């Protein structure tokens, strides 16, 4: 069985992984904010 569909560009596969990684980043950022007591901008020196 061969899969000849593209996995790059604006395809469902790429958009699915983009959404998953965005959710993961949001959860990590929120967890870091809860643990340190500082906002994300304050942690990187902008706030």
Automatic annotation (TrEMBL):
SUPFAM superfamilies membership: Chlorophyll a-b binding protein
Organism encoding this protein: Cyanobium gracile UHCC 0139
Species lineage: Bacteria, Bacillati, Cyanobacteriota, Cyanophyceae, Synechococcales
Name of this protein: Chlorophyll a/b-binding protein
Domain of life: Bacteria
